Amino acid sequence: MALPVCNFIPLTPLPDPQSWNRIIKKQLQKGDAEHTILTYIKMQEIGCRADNYTFPFLFKAAGILSSSCIGYALHGQTIKTGFNNHIFVQTAILNMYASFERVDIAHKVFDIMHVKDMVAWNSMLDAYASSGLMDYAMELFDLMPLKDISSFNIMISGYAKIGRKVSARSIFDKVAVKDIVSWNSMIVACSNIGDMVEARILLDEMPKKNVITWNTMISGYLRNQLYTEAIALFDEMKDEDCKPDYLTLTGVLSACAHLGSLKLGTTIHIYAKTHGLDSNAHVTTALIDMYAKCGSIQNSLEVFYKSQIKDIYCWNAIISGVSLHGYGYAALEFFESMTRNHMRPDDITFIGLLSACSHSGLVQEGCQLFNCMQKDFGITPKIEHYGCMVDLFSRAGFLDCAFQLIDAMPLEPGSTILGALLNACVIHQDLEYGEKIMKLLTARTADLSDGEFMMFSNLYASCGLWEEANRWRTIMNDSGIVKTSGSSIVEVNGRFNKFLAGGAGSD
């Protein structure tokens, strides 16, 4: 880890560890882990030794920086100075190794502790739970001589993370006096497995709610594609006088984007302006994304240009937005502007750019971008980038290039990539490559989807081979697979109505 130049050390050397500890603590509280370590280095240089109060701050800083090298060095120093036997230092060492996902070393530290207080037990418990090792966590939980509310909450949260709602509920029901964290963690357990009905019951039963509670529910609705419920909950939250924060707004704006509701999205934008949240970088990004997906690229551009702080997410959102609207050259211009402003692109940037080239037929430009990803920016192409390139070649009719890329790519092509290429074969009536893709798809799994069966049938139909097309439809019907109905959502007087093809509408 390269540390910056230290420019904040007082000119007059501090005489005692307590003065240094105050500086180190203050820097860590500000989230400045790098300068925390640098201050300690300067402290050593002038001959002032750390004590049992210094090391816990340092171990926390090493964990924040994810620097195992610094962590190991600090651990070694505590052994040399004898502070490794101090309970506060030992607990800090345990937490640091847990943050490095070295639960094995954390457990060794825990085992050699002569005195284990409640903080130490909970730290080890959290190390297991955070790593998803809930069987080990349960063993430790049963061994604990005393348990506090944090012990129970760690267990509920750990089970929630791995989708074991019943186990989480079992712990939850044992808590005599539940705090707000207990309730919020149980709601997460329900939403993680898609049980939003029980999550809603828990919300209604809660004696007290905070903004995290509401955000957790909104996030759960989004994760389970219940977008109208997410927006309704936002209104309910305001009615209960709970002040939404930037996470709330990014959630409901995402719901508006999925529903394509420009009217609601604009209303939430006005709310953000009124409450001073529109300048938040996360909200700005969500607004750009929402307007683009709701069909108003002009509003997306307006939000982007008015934004005072443009981070990587903001740039990615506008590139993806103009890409969605088919403005390939505009996406490339934003990319050039982005690099001129010394903003380094990431893998998401290139997904947006390659998608823009695909939608605009910019084959040469797409190839150049794909080639420069690793060469100029050190970004290894992921399956999504290969998918964009396959789509680019397929849309332009270069099916041979698309097939060669699939053969050459170091990753296994997924059904999405193969499906995109097969769809291109249908459009371009290319039976030779189409049948090759069919073989790849059938070799992957015997359980084909309705969409894959339909594309097989459509491939032969596009080439005039009606008997073979009907044969694939018959195989699909005989397998009991039913074609998924298309659907539309229409907003009327603030209510969202879903219509299925061949069916009746529903709220």
UniProtKB/TrEMBL annotation:
Species name: Quillaja saponaria
Gene3D superfamilies noted in UniProt: Tetratricopeptide repeat domain (1.25.40.10)
UniProt key word Lyase: no
Family statement drawn from the similarity comment of this UniProt entry: Belongs to the PPR family. PCMP-E subfamily.
InterPro entries: E_motif, PPR_At4g14850-like_plant, PPR_rpt, TPR-like_helical_dom_sf
GO BP terms in the entry: RNA modification
Identification of the protein by name: Pentatricopeptide repeat-containing protein
Annotated GO MF terms: RNA binding
Domain of life of the organism encoding this protein: Eukaryota
Keywords: Repeat
PPR repeat start-end pairs: 117-151, 179-209, 210-244, 311-345
Repeat in keyword set: yes
